Amino acid sequence: MIKLLIVDDSALMRRQLSSVFEEQVDFQIRLARNGEEAIYENMNFKPDVVTLDINMPVMDGLTALSHMMAQRAVPIVMVSSLTEQGALATFEAMALGAVDYIAKPEGTISSSLENVKRELVAKVRAAAAAKVKGKRVVSVPLPVEKARPRSPSNGVVVIGVSTGGPRTLEDVLPLFPADFPYPILVAQHMPASFTGAFAGRMNKLCPLQVVEANSPMPIETGVIYIGKGGADMIVTSRGGRQTVLPRPENKDFAWHPSVELLGRSVLEHYDPRNVIGVMLTGMGYDGAEAFTEIKNRGGKTVAESKESCVVFGMPAELISRNGATTVLPASRITRQVITWAN
Question: Among residues 80, 81, 153, 162, which one is catalytic?
Fold first, then answer.
């Protein structure tokens, strides 16, 4: 049995979330109405995983999260509103140790939950088996001067990431220097309202410029492009130049922005020998086929190792297909990519 603690100040939301997991039969459920109750139940009930609302009376979710991670670290999935403020609070929660987040249903709760039920259950199951890293201390200094976009490069770095991604990217992307010779394209599974806030957060940490690819943009060295949530990011050619282009989600693919579609489009517009693929933490198999093709056609790929992954799903799929040139913990990936690019 998976012991699940559901924390939300809304009685209706607690009831709806409970009904979703009661249908799964292998969940033992306990409810809490605020952060103080969550802290108590974390020590008393000892859950395997927690869903935690952010905005609550008595004690908010971020405060409760800090206490729980200090007293008894447990995988926590934040329940976040689809607003910029909700996104910023979610990224703060992940820096404090939360594993993942789910979008808080809007409108009629019952119908909204029905639409996201499969994703909700999958994320909570993945979190229950995930590694808890605890509070993250940001040691990367803010850059004094940002890199300036430079002329197009004949090479490119493609990064695919999902569950646990925002925190892992905060460990990987800031280590790229301002003179890194390749542009970087990132497909992070994330809602539409979150990617702009995430790009802004990363831009404050990275020597390279970080932008949300929310419109057609020429691909330039010195820039990290974050695929816009609620869409798929692909590479195309406009006026003889490689360009990133957001387009509506392709329903043939389960995750968005799709790593697989991005990888395939990169192969169409770059010499595979000048492509570096990086597969980071995440559940599922998104991008495994395209990244294996990158390696088979002469490119380089790195899969994050199990020891550092929050969820060893996407990297494991790449490894199982013999699609990884090398397997490294997150702390060593940037250095390897820099070596390859140079």
Answer: 162
pLDDT tens readout for residues 294-303: 999 999 999 9
pTM beyond 0.85, yes or no: yes
Strand, helix or coil for residue 249: coil
Domains observed in the chain: 2-128 (3.40.50.2300), 156-341 (3.40.50.180)
Is 252 one of the catalytic residues? Answer: no
18 is catalytic: no
**pLDDT tens digit sequence for 251-286:** 999 899 999 999 999 999 999 999 999 999 998 999
* DSSP letters for 123-161: HHHHHHTSPP--PPP--PPPPSSPPPPBS--S-EEEEEE
Distance (Å, rounded) from C-alpha 281 to C-alpha 189? 11
Catalytic residue, chosen from 53, 171, 232, 286, is: 286
Backbone CA torsion sign across 216, 92, 287, 250: negative
Catalytic residue chosen out of the listed positions 100, 171, 189, 258: 189
Three-class DSSP category at 26: coil
Our answer to whether residue 320 is catalytic in this structure is: no
